[in-house]
Queue: 3 jobs
Job 1
Amino acid sequence: MTAGAETLGPRLGAGREAEVYEWGAGAVVKLYRPGFGGHRAEAAALTALADHGVAPALIDVVELDGRTGLVLERLSGVDMLTMLRRQPWRVLRLGRTLATAQLAVHRVPAPAELPDLRRILAARIEDAALPPRLRSFASSVLDELPDGNRLCHGDYHPGNVLVAADRIAVIDWTNAARGVAEADHARTLLLLWWADPDSDTPLVSRGVIAAGRSALARRYARVYRRGGPQPVRPVKSWLTVQIAARLSEGIDNERPKLLGLLDRALYSG
């Protein structure tokens, strides 16, 4: 479908890859910036998730002035990270919800057109500014890990989960991939335990995050472990791989901490 820019309503938000606008009653359009192709993975993931109740419905794909847009169901509510900042006493309940929603996603078979997660991680490790011994170590760990056919979000964390009165919805599927559920779970563990807050996060919010992240991560991990695949496959190994891949993102504040974690993993055998 091709539409004119005059069909856009007010802009609701913006990110590195896309902007979100109102689109009539009950819908928004996520309009991708030129040069970004994340709409392909996002559309495939949302199509696979139709009728599962854990993501916004994909209504249409449009072209606006040469930019691809995904028309999505408009959801009420706030993201879980915002809720944690406003109501930190709900941390344990939200940790359970975070795990339960991810488990629901991981029960869904991934579309064949999604990229393979192991290949994505291998490329990121290759691109990361790593000492050769750590790159070799992380690559060798990845070589021993299995392929999978589960739908993986690729960047699952509280900021990408909307909480409404009667529904939980996972958003932002541009990094969706096909892989092993534990690999996606390990990425979330990494983000919960060690990712730095955004640079524009207020100091007070940083304090709340630091105080609550341990409780959130522990509850999330416990609930996921109880409901996840059996037998449990090597999450520790996937975590090592995800740490190495994370270093390709060039987040300077995280680098010393992540390199230290890789060193410990290497020498712990």
Note: Residues 78-267 form a domain with the Aminoglycoside 3'-phosphotransferase; Chain: A, domain 2 fold (CATH 3.90.1200.10).
Job 2
Amino acid sequence: MSGLPVVAAAEVATPAPPASRQSPVSVAPVSVTVRDLTKRFPIRRGWLRALLHPFSTDLVTSVDSVSFEVHRGEFFGLLGPNGAGKTTLLKMLATLITPDAGSAEVEGIDVAGDPAQARRLVAPVIASERSLYWRLSARENLELFAHLWNVPRPLVASRVEEVLEVVDLRHTGDKMVGQFSSGMMQRLLIARALLAEPRVLLLDEPTRSLDPISARAFRRFLRDELAVRRQCAVVIATHSAEEAFDLCDRVAVLDRGRLLSVGVAAELARDLAGDRYVVWTTQPRHPALQSLAVAADRGEAAPVALRVMDGWTPVEIQLFGGPDEAAGILQRLVAQGVPVAALERVPVSLASLIESVVRRDDSERGPR
């Protein structure tokens, strides 16, 4: 099997979440409550339309009656493509934008009714390196923002050292921020947010500028430090299905401002998109392999050969019984003489997930 291609785990493998990753929904108090939150923005008009209709206003709905709850110590993902309304939702929770309808509460504080108090509890982390002062050191940046956030003067030095230690930047705290890598800047943004000791963190695409290895390490740091140690409620906006299902306890799927579905991350991926696996074999047209799609008569799509490498062909199949069914399929293929080098799980894509939700909703509504 020397010709077997090596497939990176980050590309095809999506490990099942351990027991510690179960959502704390049933035991932890509610930290964030969103009820029918709606936001519309005026559409920029051309000069001719503005001249003909000077008093009319065209609006586009960015967030459309969205409702959910987030519990303390929980990672809650807002998953959707660009333009789904994720960032607008975060900005409303951070009191940067006023909602047009609905309500949002953070630890019982209405973000629209008492924004000053809400800002003491919420820290937004926008993935924008321009918000840091590049000609200052990391320590000087944090000292500056500590004063802006009214951290008591006697506590500034100790608080800065504490958050630098938390994000593993203490030994580079005197380095100018302009010399930082993207990963170091992301950590510094988290450290800046932690200065205020928030109860809720809002993360907007926190790993979009990181390579896959750095992104995985950064997600591990976020979970261990924010959710486990500090018991913060974390709302993360992302368009990466892998990131949402790898990091979050629960995921809300958004599309064009509407909340399509919300649920436990692993269950949502399995229920909506099923479990897709790739079987590496030298006999992709073996009858036992070709009959997999129709054997259970559950409407799975037929296996599709993806590409051939050194004689080994990855064939994609659709399963709905999770790892137990995958183990049984592997045993059956081997027993029937199918040469199998590997059986690997394929992560669900955002596009297929949204399509599955839309199809499910259409089928539940029935014919119009």
Note: DSSP finds 14 helices and 14 strands in the chain.
Job 3
Amino acid sequence: MSFRGSHTALVTPFRGGEIDEAAFRLLIEAQVRAGIDGIVPVGTTGESPTLTHQEHIAVIRIAIDAAAGRCKVIAGTGSNSTSEAISLTSDAKDLGADAALLVAPYYNKPSPEGLYRHFRAISEAVDIPIVLYSIPGRCGVEIDVKTVTRLAADCPNIVAIKEAGGSVERVSQLRAALPEAFEILSGDDSLTLPFLSVGAVGVISVASNVIPAEVGNLVRAWLAGRTDEASAIHRKYYQLFKDLFLEPNPAPTKYVLSLVGQMTPEVRLPLCEMEESSKERLRDTALQLGLL
């Protein structure tokens, strides 16, 4: 299975404290119609840490049903508990997910050996394609290049990594150390273009909740050798890529989606609504791009 292309790290819509299934299904339908290659329910952008286990599984089930085989479903099943990650990944496989996205264990700050054993244990327990997820800014630990290389060599179903460490140099290091078949995906919209230039083959995007066609066009253009076209899309939407992180993700993305009537801007504590100054700046950016 290849993960070339654009994949959306879906927000989880809420209404009155509960999952808004109708809004979630409409969001997925919009993604599919825009030509997205895959969707990623219950990752960081899906507020997975604030969902109950039952809600987590319910969101994956809804995503798979709504996608109806029209795009890949990469289920977020990571945890800082290895046994919980195995349980979530097993459930996702049983529901019909195409792959699993597994974030580095957060808060525990395991050693490289602990990280290796964590991911190997999940790989051995559940036969499903696995995308590693390195985001040290949230987890407090990076999946280092040596550990990724060991996992790629020892675990046949660990086949890709979402790289959200903000370093083009690290992507170059990963590409040099890993087999060509092991795929690297950008985890930062503002860095997708530079990551592609040094060996990434796609993105797991936050911005594509709002502009799925445009993010898809950027990646497709680059992979097809139309680098000027890809660069033009990057330049046009760069400010949006940055402004969607004015405050903790996914509050800004949900705010934009609320402006176009797709869902409420509601997030769960400890996240909260954006400051008015941030709302004004993000609204201005969206207006300038013709999104409102």
Note: Residues 5-224 form a domain with the TIM Barrel fold (CATH 3.20.20.70).
